[in-house]
């Protein structure tokens, strides 16, 4: 097996960078190995641009670095590349964190949590919302963690700034849960349909 078989071509990396630059959410479809290859490619591109900017500043000492860096292009300017670099690095960090959080759920629990977190908005109080989601996921046997681990997960994963040290109610047959159970079931069915299509 040659290195060309396992290494993405420069053309493909450039095309991928352009696609990410147009729509950053495309990063979610890329594996970590390709992301790391993109970071190496960005490093090379930044070095090349900085070399050009340096030569430009020597030739035109009245220009500032900021002006030269933003007006020197090789498909992207210096600041575009720095922004792409930060975006990809954060994406890799999030993937690593998501893998850690995946251990708290049985498949497809974390994906369902993400879906319900986005789509279920009837309850305005965050602690009540996440308590209802807890009981729903637990009832579907998708949680592989304790209540305490779930509370910690929600605070970290959702960046909750409020106190959430206990569930709002312990019994899943609580009136707040029952009131929202039908909507959650509909959302769950929608989620299952979406995930069988993908």
Please trace the helix and strand order, writing H or E for each element.
Answer: HHHHHHHHH
* Distance separating the two termini: 32 Å
The largest β sheet comes out as: none
Radius of gyration, in angstroms, nearest whole number = 23 Å
* Unreliable stretches: none
| Oligomer kind | single chain
User: How much helix, percentage-wise, in residues?
Assistant: 55-70%
**What is the count of β-strands?**
0
Which structural class fits the helix and strand makeup? mainly alpha
Q: What is the average per-residue confidence, as pLDDT, rounded to a whole number? A: 89
Beta-strand proportion: under 5%
Integer count of domains: 2
Structure annotation, total helices: 9
Bulk shape = elongated
Question: Which features does this protein show?
Answer:
198 residues; mainly alpha; 2 domains; 68% helix; elongated
Describe the structure.
There is one protein chain. This protein is an all-alpha fold. It has two domains: 7-96; 109-197, no CATH class. Helices cover 68% and strands 0% of the residues. Helix 6 packs across helix 9 (175-197). The longest helix has 28 residues, at 32-59. The mean pLDDT is 89.
């Amino acid at each position: 097996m040659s290195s060309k078989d396992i290494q993405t071509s420069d053309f493909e990396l450039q095309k991928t960078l352009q696609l990410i630059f147009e729509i950053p959410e495309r990063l979610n479809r890329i594996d970590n190995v390709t992301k790391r290859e993109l970071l190496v490619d960005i490093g090379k591109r930044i070095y090349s641009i900085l070399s050009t900017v340096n030569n430009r500043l020597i030739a035109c000492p009245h220009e500032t670095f900021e002006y030269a860096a933003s007006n020197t292009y090789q498909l992207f300017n210096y600041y575009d590349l720095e922004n792409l670099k930060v975006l990809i690095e954060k994406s890799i960090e999030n993937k690593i964190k998501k893998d850690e959080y995946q251990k708290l759920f049985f498949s497809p629990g974390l994906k369902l949590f993400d879906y319900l977190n986005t789509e279920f908005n009837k309850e305005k109080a965050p602690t009540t919302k996440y308590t209802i989601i807890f009981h729903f996921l637990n009832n579907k046997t998708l949680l592989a963690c304790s209540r305490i681990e779930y509370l910690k997960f929600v605070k970290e994963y959702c960046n909750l700034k409020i106190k959430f040290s206990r569930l709002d109610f312990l019994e899943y047959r609580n009136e707040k849960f029952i009131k929202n159970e039908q909507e959650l079931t509909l959302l769950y069915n929608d989620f299952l349909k979406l995930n069988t299509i993908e």
